[in-house]
Amino acid sequence: MPNVVDDIVAEVAALCRENRDGAVADYIPELASVPADEFALCIATTDGYVYESGSARTEFTIQSISKPFTYGLALADNGPAAVAAKVDVEPSGEPFNEISLDPVTERPRNPMINAGAITSAALIHGADVAERFERIRRCYSRYAGRELTMNDAVYLSEAKTGHRNRAIGHMLRSFGIVTGNPDDAVDLYFRQCSIDVTCRDLALMAATMANNGINPVTHERALATEQIERVLSVMTTCGMYDAAGDWVARVGLPAKSGVGGGVLAVLPGQIGIAVYSPRLDAHGNSVRGVQACSELSKRLELHFMHVTRAARSAIRSQYTIAEAPSRQRRTDTERTTLSQFGNRARIYELHGDLLFAGAETAVREITDHGDDLDAVVIDIRRIDDVSAVANRMIADMQAALNDRGCRTALVDPDGMLGRTTSSVLIDDPDGRVFVDIDAAAQWCEDVVLDRYCFVDRQPKRVDLARHPLLATLTSEQFERFALEIERRTFTRGEVVVRRGEQASGIHFLLEGQISSTLTDAQGRTRRVATLSPGMSFGEMALLVAEPYLYDVRADSAVQLAVLPAERFADLTASAPGLKLALLERLAAGAYAQMDSAIRSIALRSGGF
Q1: Residue ranges for the binding site for substrate?
Q2: What global pTM score does this model have?
Q3: Residues making up the binding site
Q4: Which residues does the record give as substrate binding sites (predicted)?
């Protein structure tokens, strides 16, 4: 199903389609006849996913967008020093087809203008034009991830009308920049410009550049990393001709345009962008292409001066509550239900900087599984920084999942997303935010149990005689036990015991819910465990004669039956059989609880 990135791409595409400025290139007859209002917009990620809008599969000729790819191949064939001896890397400030060289170096100013591009073509190794072109075609195909072909009609049209480029070729020959037949170099340049691509192809070619020269779909290397860096550097300063300075300031991405209507842009380490729209501005750049890239740069925060770290997958780990249950104790039926349906509640742990690319990966994966889930928790405790667009994407994804019946929650103790945090599990609305993962896991379990478990649920109240810890007592032992207990009640939020207090006895929960909590150095309250009717606490502190290690608070109105510490001690002499039965039951319960906790922690930490 579409996710928030699809929506953003659609928004930008809808905005740009309304722009009717500019005109198609008419100096090449075949280009003059293309539909002026064709439009496509694609974003390709460095893991090979492509977002598409419009005529993304319509073919058009690559034209000057070929220049950085041929320049990269020339670097691979000759090395940077040999190429630098033939063509500079400085912005020209002149139109792309200017017949001129740098007055000092007497070389083309950069490989992105026609003089530099023809020089790059002349540097490609091969026995003849046909062999050199085949190497260029295969090179482009590696970037695109499919076999590309030349458009013969456009090639013949360019060859018939390309007198200015022939003049540039002969100028290069007269200065010794091109040493062979200049017509061969120009003809090779016409051929490379006439290769057909789609907007999707260009996006993947850009993503290959963003991925250090490795195609994210085929995983084939198109160019060495150090050569990609040089190509992207020249694209940054020279790729948009005499509009390059304005482009870098507003869009902030290495880019290249072509008179066929294409624009290619790269955000290293994250994504490639491609736009196809034949209407050109006075600089020879696609009007809509420039507008679309500018809009995407603003909306997705893509300006390369904004990015502080290379993107990486935001999902550190993921697991279901069947694999990593909470520390909430459950009935046998509830455990069976969670074993069967626990895969319908999933926890995603994110890490690193949550910028566009990392958020896009997480949103796409979570959204793709949304139809199979009843609850999702997004744990961002390991996130270092969150961009505004990532925050929006997470919020929009939560809204979309909730609309489909999948409830969502965050684990965000530091408030990275700017939302109020709480570990309370009762009477909270959807979209709650927890400060610890176990509270969120318990919430997931409750969602699943509410949907699939209709019998033998954890009771809202138990009679003392039916408390599980007392189930093995004989009737005589229970009657003796009942004489020793005290009944106590607490209101919601009231402290039952405080950390550091001496053990006061064994507390049997009969009604309501309580949580054991710890307060960290920042003053945040973190939940250790939550107990429901039929559970107990205080026994460990009592048995080892140590103070309580945590606070215990009432999450609701609570009724307890308490066996005071002194009366428990007196049982040694007055009712040893009763005390032994209690100790055996307490030991069995403690072991089961520890086993469950260890299995859960092992999964979340990657195993022991």
Answers
A1: 64, 114, 158, 165, 189, 241, 259
A2: 0.68
A3: 64, 114, 158, 165, 189, 241, 259
A4: 64, 114, 158, 165, 189, 241, 259
